[in-house]
Every structure is written in structure tokens, then in C-alpha cells.
Design brief:
8-stranded parallel beta barrel; alpha/beta; TIM Barrel
């Protein structure tokens, strides 16, 4: 099988001594028409991989900021099919940047595994992270996505035991996402020493790049995480910027914010 776009990006970054910046935004927030311009602006500002959230009515892992982004997107009627259509639109002018869909099981199960995988391949999706699918419940979706060449990305947390790391190592591809704190997205109590202690433990079990997210809100923290992990994932801070920006200023404000974080990581 050909190397995935995700694996190719990490290999290129590794060769250049750099770390991946992975921003997260919710599809359809602030509206469907602005989503693709936001994705292009994130790439222009230095993003290496994009995580596109599939809006869901009960995003249990997400704090209030991302919950509100899902509510705004759902008010615009943004569905899983719309998310795939937005990736297709993005792919018209960017065939290089990996796109990961991040969301919950219900919309995928409603569509059906085979239909979802076919739609994801057609749209140009590179990876899928389903927050509420632990490895022991993901075999059905994993087999369909793996057969389609789509990476399955899983979460690890501060409470993950070594057996869980082994379980995820059997199914995961692309990268693993280490949730750096006990709590929901956007929490502010990130313990860098705890993250630095956990990453080597994960590496003993998982032979994939490790991205760290939850609680990273500025360039200084992103730079510190980049020293110990392979990727920095930033979501709530970007979604907060979308929420607080005037409609005509969303794209520019996000570009400046992400550009500053990229420069901090590279410094």
C-alpha cells in the first residue's frame, strides 16, 4: 500500500527536525461557507495536518467552547455528509495536506461503515478519530477504514494503562493523540512534567508519532510540547477565536494566531 499522506508528512518533518502543528476546527462553524477558507488559512499559517470536527449534539469529551461550536454548526444544519463535501471542496486546491475527521460514533453508525468509508475516500479524508470508540469496540469500523487506506487514530490519556497502550498499538495508524489532562477540551491545568513523563512510556508500546492536545493555548506551551512530542494539537483556543471574531475577521484572526504558534514551535 502507498504511504499515507499522514505518514508522509511526519517523515518529511522528521527529516527536517520539525514537529507537526495540528489545528482543530469544527465543520460548519461559524458557517459552512467559511469552513474551507478557514482550512486553507490554517495551512497557509503553518498547519501540517488538519483535524475537522464533525458536529454532534452530545460531544462528551469537549468542554463548553467546542460544545458551542457544535451547536452553531448544527444550527446551520451541518451533517456528516456536509463534512465530507467540505473536505472535497478543500481538495480541489489542496491535495497535499492531510485531513482527519474527528467526532463521535453516532453519525458514522447512522450512515453505515461502508458508506462512510466510501464517502471519506471519495472526499480525500486521510484519517478518522472517533472519540467514543475504544479499540475493543472499533474492529468493524477499523477493518473497513483500513481496507480503504484511511488511518484510524486513537486517544490515550493520563489514566491509560500499559495494556490499553498495547490494545491501541494493534489498531492505530497515522498517529496517536495523547490527551494531556484529565478533563474535557479547553481545560487550563496542563502539567508539562506529567506529559514529559508519559510520552516515553507510550513510545515503549506504540511505534507511531504522538500528538499532544487538550489545554494547549499559546505559543509558549506549544513550543514546550513540541520538545517532547511529535505533534501539537490545538483546538479550543482556535474555536474560541472563531467565536469571538466578527464575521469578516475570522479567517485573518485565525491565520495570525496559528502563524504565531507555528513560529513559536520552530524557534
Amino acid at each position: 500500500m502507498a504511504t499515507s499522506r499522514i505518514a508522509g508528512v511526519f517523515a518529511a518533518l522528521r527529516a527536517n527536525g520539525r514537529k507537526a502543528l495540528i489545528p482543530f476546527v469544527t465543520a460548519g462553524d461559524p458557517d459552512k461557507a467559511t469552513t474551507v477558507p478557514i482550512l486553507h488559512c490554517l495551512v497557509a499559517a503553518g498547519a501540517d495536518i488538519l483535524e475537522l470536527g464533525v458536529p454532534f449534539s452530545d460531544p462528551m469529551a469537549d468542554g463548553p467552547t467546542i460544545q458551542r461550536s457544535s451547536e452553531r454548526a448544527l444550527k446551520h444544519g451541518t451533517s456528516l455528509r456536509d463534512c465530507l463535501a467540505l473536505v472535497s471542496e478543500f481538495r480541489r486546491t489542496d491535495n497535499a495536506t492531510p485531513v482527519v475527521l474527528m467526532g463521535y460514533a453516532n453519525p458514522i453508525e447512522s450512515m453505515g461503515y461502508a458508506a462512510f468509508a466510501a464517502g471519506a475516500v471519495s472526499a480525500g479524508v486521510d484519517g478518522v478519530l472517533v472519540v467514543d470508540y475504544p479499540p475493543e469496540e472499533s474492529a468493524g469500523l477499523h477493518s473497513v477504514l483500513a481496507a480503504s487506506g484511511i488511518d484510524c487514530i486513537f486517544l490515550l490519556s493520563p489514566t491509560s494503562v500499559e495494556q490499553r497502550m498495547d490494545d491501541i498499538a494493534r489498531f492505530a495508524s497515522g498517529y496517536v493523540y495523547y490527551v494531556s489532562l484529565k478533563g474535557v477540551t479547553g481545560a487550563a491545568n496542563l502539567d508539562l512534567d506529567e506529559v514529559a513523563a508519559k510520552i516515553p512510556q507510550i513510545r515503549k508500546h506504540v511505534d507511531l508519532p504522538i500528538g499532544v492536545g487538550f489545554g494547549i493555548r499559546d505559543g509558549e506551551t506549544a513550543r514546550a510540547i513540541a520538545r517532547i512530542a511529535d505533534a501539537v494539537v490545538i483546538g479550543s483556543r482556535l474555536v474560541q477565536e472563531i467565536e469571538n471574531s466578527a464575521p469578516g475577521e475570522v479567517v485573518g484572526n485565525l491565520g495570525r494566531l496559528v502563524g504565531g504558534i507555528r513560529r513559536a514551535m520552530d524557534s
